[in-house]
Write a structure and sequence with these properties.
alpha/beta, Rossmann fold, 7-stranded antiparallel β-sheet, 16 strands, binds flavin-adenine dinucleotide, binds FE2/S2 (inorganic) cluster
Amino acid sequence: MAELAVRSAPVLTNEEVAPGLFKMVLKGTYSGKPAQFYMLRAWGLDPLLARPMSVFDRSEEWIAFLYRIRGRGTELLSQLHSGDRILLLGPLGNGWERRPGRVALIGGGSGVASLLHTAKVFGDVDLYLGFRNKPFLIDEFKQVAERLVVASETGEGGQRGLVSNIFDPSGYDACYACGPQAMLASLSRACKKAKVPLFVSLEERMACGIGACLGCAVRTTRGICRVCRDGPVFHAREVIWDG
Ligand SMILES: Cc1cc2nc3c(=O)[nH]c(=O)nc-3n(C[C@H](O)[C@H](O)[C@H](O)COP(=O)(O)OP(=O)(O)OC[C@H]3O[C@@H](n4cnc5c(N)ncnc54)[C@H](O)[C@@H]3O)c2cc1C
Ligand code: FES
């Protein structure tokens, strides 16, 4: 926690890599375990709150975020140009620890953002990516996976269907997933049945990002937990899934 401070960084690049999806690279040296995140802001008082983004990739000289435009905050981020400055707080959250043995990473939609860095740090992983339609950044993901399985709801660029239906946990020693709640809940049931541990990274809406407001509370078997401080990573069996 000693290194936690808001810092200002220059944007190196901010490119639309697929419709509505941007990759932003910031100059500087940063830390960040797989599935840790930063709170980003590039505006004054409106919107009031910074926005959480997972570490997509990083090197000694830069850090990259991959984000989808959803509302005002991400729209403002997408308008930044090379040389503009942005404020960051992080790295935040607990992150993922690699377990020994055969490991699978499963991502859905913009939830794939945390998996590139994770695959690089973990090494020797199978990657399962799910998209609504045309898959994105497949060449980058191919380079970091032992095996890459791509699924899309339209069948474009991969197997047709939901990645949570295509993925079979048997034979794995541990699984790690990030994506929409319904996908995580479905994977949780499959992994429980196969008796394979699943670690999920939750993407609740956040306000402070540092555990002070309970804005990101989730129900778990341990009681109410804060996704920003107690997570974003939880063992799937401790999350109380809605529905
Ligand atoms: C730990 C963490 C890591 C994240 N990493 C990434 C990432 O790497 N890439 C990425 O694209 N997104 C990521 N997100 C989600 C991202 O933070 C939100 O999309 C962003 O805050 C939306 O801000 P906005 O101002 O554009 O939209 P807002 O105006 O705040 O919201 C627009 C719409 O999106 C919905 N929305 C906002 N946040 C979320 C959310 N967390 N989950 C579901 N719906 C939401 C709102 O309900 C609303 O309907 C992450 C979230 C968390 C908590
Ligand atoms: S966002 Fe404030 S406690 Fe998590």
